[in-house]
Amino acid sequence: MKPTNAMKCSKADFWFSRMIRLRDADENGIGTCCTCGLKKDVKYMDNSHFICRQHQATRFDEMNCHTACKKCNGFEEGKKDVYEKFLIEKYGSDRVNLLKLRGQSTCKRTQLDLDYIAVYFKQKATELSREKNIKLW
């Protein structure tokens, strides 16, 4: 099956977003915005992509995504300069540069790929939910 623009990433995006926010949550289900430091229940936070979601090669890359508040992620377009500093502190400049290179590469996914991604991240989110005792929403 050839990938098309009509293919839906919705289930894969849904579970990937949940997993990222659960990964970044503390034991009380509180996440910290990677750009401004705001602390809030992760179900009211966003999964922020350093490299935009339109770049499929990094769309589901865990290093590319972190919890952010809705203001920084949505209204302030991710605060890319602050986000990059956060990434460099967390992963180092070499890994961030490799992430940027991956973001420029081409990646085509089939619906089967997206279905697999959804199942994989649903499993990871469920495991994190159990480990941290945070109810899935």
Structural topology:
Elements: H1 10-24, E1 30-32, E2 39-41, E3 46-49, H2 56-59, E4 65-68, H3 70-75, H4 80-91, H5 93-103, H6 111-132
Antiparallel strand pairs: 1-2, 3-4
Helix pairs in contact: 1-6, 4-5
Helix content: 40-55%
**How many helical elements?**
6
Q: What low-confidence regions span 5 or more consecutive residues with pLDDT below 50?
A: 1-6
Pairing-aware structural class of the strands and helices?
Answer: mainly alpha
**Spatial extent as radius of gyration:** 15 Å
Order of helices and strands: HEEEHEHHHH
What's the count of strands?
Answer: 4
Q: N-to-C terminal Cα separation, in Å?
A: 33 Å
Q: Give the overall shape.
A: globular
Strand order of the largest sheet: 1-2
Mean pLDDT: 94
Residues in β-strands, percent: 5-15%
Q: How many separate domains make up the residues?
A: 1
Q: Describe the biggest sheet?
A: 2 strands, antiparallel
Describe this structure in words.
The chain has 137 residues and is mostly helical. It has one domain (10-122). The protein has 6 helices and 4 strands, in the order H-E-E-E-H-E-H-H-H-H. The strands form 2 sheets. It has a two-stranded antiparallel sheet with strand order 1-2. The chain has a two-stranded antiparallel ribbon with strand order 3-4. Strand 1 and strand 2 form a beta hairpin. The longest helix has 22 residues, at 111-132. It is globular and about 35 Å long. The termini are far apart.
